[in-house]
UniProtKB/TrEMBL annotation:
Name under which the protein is recorded: Dsl1-C domain-containing protein
Domain ZW10 C-terminal helical: 790-902
Domain NAD(P)-binding: 942-1090
Leader sequence segment: none
Region Disordered, annotated ranges: 456-611
A Pfam cross-reference name: ZW10_C2
Taxonomic source organism: Mycena indigotica
Taxonomy of the source species: Eukaryota, Fungi, Dikarya, Basidiomycota, Agaricomycotina
GO cellular component: cytoplasm; RZZ complex
Matching Gene3D superfamilies: 1.10.357.150, NAD(P)-binding Rossmann-like Domain
Amino acid sequence: MAFPIPDHLPRRPNPKDVSSEILLKIDKATNQTLSAELAASWLTELDGTIQNTKQQIHHRIHRDLPLFEQQFETSKSVQTRLQALSTNVENLDRTLSDPEAGIIPALVRSLTAHAVLAQQATNAAVQHEAVLYLLRCRKSFTGVLSLVQLGKLPEAVVACDEFEQEHLQFVPPHLSQTSVFADLKRKFQAAKSKTEEQLSEAYSRSIVILAQTLTVLRSVVVRQSDNVLSLSDVLSSLTPTARANHLTILRRDMVAYYVDQLLLQPATLSSSSEHDEQRLTVIPSPPNTNNPIERLENVSLALKFLSKHFTAYLPLSDKASVSRALCKPIGSSILSNLLIPSLPVAFHGLPAFLQLAERAVAFEGECIVQLLGGDEHDRPIKIWIDNLSGHYERRRRMLILDNARLVVLAPEVVGDHGKFVVEVDPFLQEKKAALPDIIPVQKEMIGFEQKEDVDEWGFDEGTGNGDGDDGWGFDDDSAPEPIPQSEPREMVVSGDDDNWGFDDEPVGPPDPNGDKDDGEDAWGWNDEESSGDTAWEDDPWNETTEKSIDDPPSPPKSAATTLASPVPARKATRLEKLANKGKKHLNGSSPLASPTPPITVNPNPVPESLKPPVKRPPELTSPLVAVAPKESYLVTHRTKQIVAIVKEVLAEGQHFTVSRMIPIRHGSGSEPGALILQSAASVVDLYRALYPVQFSGRLKTVVDAPMQLSNDCMYLSEEIRRLERTLVGPPNVKEKLVDCGDRLKVWGDSWFQDTIDQHRASIDETIAKGAEGFTFLADQDRYDDCEAAIGRAVQEIKRLSQRWKGILTKTKYYTAVGLVTDAALSRLLEDVLALPDITEVESHRLHEIFRMLSGLEALFIEDANQQPFAADYVPSWFKFSYLTELMDASMVDIVDLFESGALRDFEVDELAREEKRYKMWEPDRYVSKPMSRTYNNVIVFGPTGTVGGLVALEAHQRGAKVWLAMRDTSKPIDGITSTVEQAGNFVRVQADLSDPASVSSAITQSGATAAYLYLVHTPDFARATLRAMRDAGVEYIVFLSSYTIRLEGVPLREIKPDRGIAYANAQAEINIEEAGFPYFTTLRPARFASNYRKFWFDGAKALHVFPDSVMDNIAPEDIGAVGGAVLVNRPSEEKETIYLYGPELRTAKESWEVIKNITGREIDIAPLTAQHYTQVLLTKGLPNAAIQYLLALDRVNVGFPQQEYQDAVGNVEKYAGRQPTKFSDYIQAHKAEWLA
């Protein structure tokens, strides 16, 4: 498409040739300018131009005419020669390519005829060679076939080998694919297979192995022929593959019939020979014939028979290998079928077994090493015999534990038939301190058999002593009936060197030191006559106080057996002090025993210097003390059986160690008998592991079952300690027994305390739900509900006292009942003191409710003439008693009490105000309760988190009972395996930190006073949850915070919300401080090493923006170790802030390179943009504010101040007692998670 050329573009210059000029003029002409004249002018101009050109050519030629003529002649000569050359080329082509006479066609025809002739000659030569080769093959094959038909099998085998080498190995190529050669090969293979088949058949007839007979023929006739083959010819003629198969079957049958069977069953072997036949016959012996050595001799005879009559005929190449192949199966069979089953289950069987062991070692040397050519350095039987001591001890350990398992899992005997009484001296420790040089007479425990027909507390009506004593056994001022010497009393009493008195000293006349058999009941003190029943109507025994006519006369009391009354105590100065009087230890050996019956307990408290329940009266601490009052408790016969097993195990281990019957192998790692001795501790561990699982239902449903288990544990603990003191053995065994005893004691105390806590919680819940705070008591329906709730609580406490009274010692009984009673009183006091105001009607009705609980005082009366001692075991009894009086007292009564000194700490106008009158009774929550730096009952919130599970595991390893507070209690815990959790002291409890009610319930259920928690994202930063924890009894908090805070006090409260993580953790710490917890530890770790895989990794891409940002990479295991350590052992009396940093500083890029090198994964560690980083972490669940805060930290993170960093790294070793984990070590330990 034409378009106008812009004017500014340069124009091409006009051409100088003639035609261009004419054409340019023609082009410029238009329809308007074109005319005949113009065309004529163009023609004229063109003619002129042509003429001018001709003239120029003419002038040019004539200007150098000679040169022109020369060139013209040259051109004509070239044209002539070109024409001649073309003619010659055409003639040459005709001579070469002419089809008739041409040279090339004639040559092709001659070569073709020659090729045909050569092919014919070649075909004839090949055909001749093939015929000759086939003739040779036919001749050789005919020879092979004739040998096979004649039964000359060895020669046939040789001929077959020669035929294959000469005729089948190098076959002419033109013959290999022919049908005639294929037919020849087929017939040859058939002949060869027939040869091998006949040889195998001959072998099968040469040696026959059956269960009863072993037959070997030295020669055999070939089937369908008259030729006879020798055994050596048959064996040598078999192909290697067939011979190997036959020998494998032979080895299998020999091991099965003539090794295993001979070792398992008694038999007699006989050998016979007839012509060429050798026969070994097995004659079974009677089943009652059991001589293991004879069985070894039978195997030896069978092996020698085989070696002489069969192995000797094997080819040399197979003889050694066949014999050696039998060595390992024979050795294994002797171990598994003879030695191990014959290993004795008791010590008396060892001498006979040692003879068998000696013969087995000799057998291995004679038959396996020498006869069969086994390796001298590989002798499994000798190695096993050298370790015989360990094998025997492991066998005994297995049998011992199986026996113990049967005892532990045996059904529980219902009632008192499966129990016996154990006596304990509650003042034993004080007696030791007061009488260091006096040795009391011990009562012997005959064969660990205690008297079983004595009831739980010694209240058998109509027993040998004829006492008709009351429920506590105080009508025994007359002497008991003497115990015959022929039937020593099987009662366990306290001794001089333990709390149980099993010193196994013979029963004899009392020593002059005054310890004589007083024949008292299970608790009774033969000090003073007691009459009348107990003061409460639900007496579980209801025994009469009349004396039996068979009672012998009572001897006069001596001054040495009389308990003096303590000096009267002064009045209390504060009700808070009264509430804390009389607290008792919970174990049976506590010096806080129940009060002595003749002592009159004054309701007023006693000074610290007296404390009647704590210290003995002066008479009992004098050197004239002869008999201390004893307490008794029930123990199951299952426990006695376990003690008997432990005792037998220790005796057996000592006997085994002393006997030195089994030689000690040089370099052995343990002494003989050590494993048996260690089984004693394993028996106890088995009991602790199986009993709570087997009888879990009974422990939950039967009221007295947990207390009975606590008694059994305490009895076992003391028995184990007694056995440990008498044991002469390795130190590690004694250490294990000591540890077992300690664990049993802790376990028994735990069952005792947990049972009390469970019933305390039940009583508290009964009153809390039924009474609903004792509000609106003026309404009759509400009063009836409260009265019914209190009635249920009282009945439950009485029911518990009836069930526990026949099981526990007096001290434990009163302690348990007192604590349960205290739970009811505490709930009542707490709810009543929380009432804002009380009307007169409500005050009177509260007084009636208080009087219902006052009836529980009858539980703490042993004699009608004795004052109740409830205040000694119920901490809040004094407070409850005064408040009971004040509920129905007038102002004049209150003033009288105040003026008499009972309420000297209160002003009249304070007591006159209702609100003051009640709230002034409430003691400070923490002042009245002693604090401890060590906590053995802790609760961990969030154990399924990265750190929570590790904190719980560390706390458990430090001896604490750990409650695992979880939203979903069925969720697995990564930090604690199921095996560790089941074996350890862990309890799962449902709780959600965002739900204060569930947290309060979990704290109440656990009874824990120390708690570990993490940051929970609630609108109030867990303020309500923390208050619920404080109100439920938590006094110490360990909080997982963040290093981003780095502030305390006022600056902590000035952190702005835009600081994200720092602000959230700061608010949580502030809430903990303001909640009023006395003790608080905050953990402020830096960057978790686990975050690389959890948050900063996206399949194959590293998620980071700033590669030069410095990281410390602290391992969560280090955080958990420090958290668990400070949770159990509080580090200070005030807020403790612990920074935790990793031991190595690396950039983000260096950290990812370490991960790549250790894991071997291909990871793209190129940095991301901030926008991409944010998008990825949002998909992982991180809030945008947290992500932006992390970006801001990484942007400026160039490290830590040197002193701060060194202190934070050292905190791991300071609190956890171990070196911090390096980042590379952490990645190596978690390599499998990266590769998953």
